[in-house]
Amino acid sequence: MLNLLLADFFERDMLKLKEEISLYKDETNLWKVENTISNSAGNLCLHLIGNLNHFIGATLGNTGYVRQRELEFSSKNIPRNELLSEVDKLIPIVVNTLKNLNDADFEANFPLEKHGQIVKTDYMLFHLLTHLNYHIGQINYHRRLLE
């Protein structure tokens, strides 16, 4: 049951990520930073794509994805349609991986440490969901501040 709930929430929120990226009227604004804003919406989108591909796709779903975290923040001016395409590819990876988990999987230790600590898989997945939403909120404010 938890697997289906999490799959639904992650899918809903990745679709919200696509919507937020699509709402930028001026595509160049995806990559702007101003004042104390240090991360652009484009870089936050890349970060979320890398994060979920790594922690859910590769770690739980054995996709073979290799994360290059530094590129999530240093890459610039990737066309919006490429960002959206990467989210489109990510959605079934996350959803299918989560749907294939069972109750024992959620109670098991997550295969990777989180900031040096061992946590249960259910804890890590809730962390990843809140992390996704935190950055979607940042993207929303970023867009409204610039446009």
Structure description:
67% of the residues lie in helices and 0% in strands. It is mainly α. It has one domain: Up-down Bundle (Four Helix Bundle (Hemerythrin (Met), subunit A)). α1 packs antiparallel against α4 and α2 (41-61) packs antiparallel against α6 (121-146). The longest helix is centred in the last third of the chain and has 26 residues, at 121-146. The model has no long low-confidence stretch (mean pLDDT 97).
What's the quick description here?
The chain contains 6 helices and no strands. It has helices at residues 2-22, 41-61, 69-74, 80-99, 103-107, 121-146.
Keywords:
147 residues, mainly alpha, Four Helix Bundle (Hemerythrin (Met), subunit A), 67% helix
Topology:
Layout: H1 2-22, H2 41-61, H3 69-74, H4 80-99, H5 103-107, H6 121-146
User: CA-to-CA gap between the ends?
Assistant: 41 Å
Assembly state? single chain
Report the sheet-strand fraction.
under 5%
Number of helix segments?
6
The level 1 CATH classification is Mainly Alpha
**In the CATH classification, which architecture applies?**
Up-down Bundle
Task: Give me the count of strands.
Answer: 0
CATH superfamily: dinb family like domain
Low-confidence stretches: none
Overall pLDDT level? 97
The domain count comes to: 1
Helical content class:
55-70%
- What summary fits the major beta sheet? none
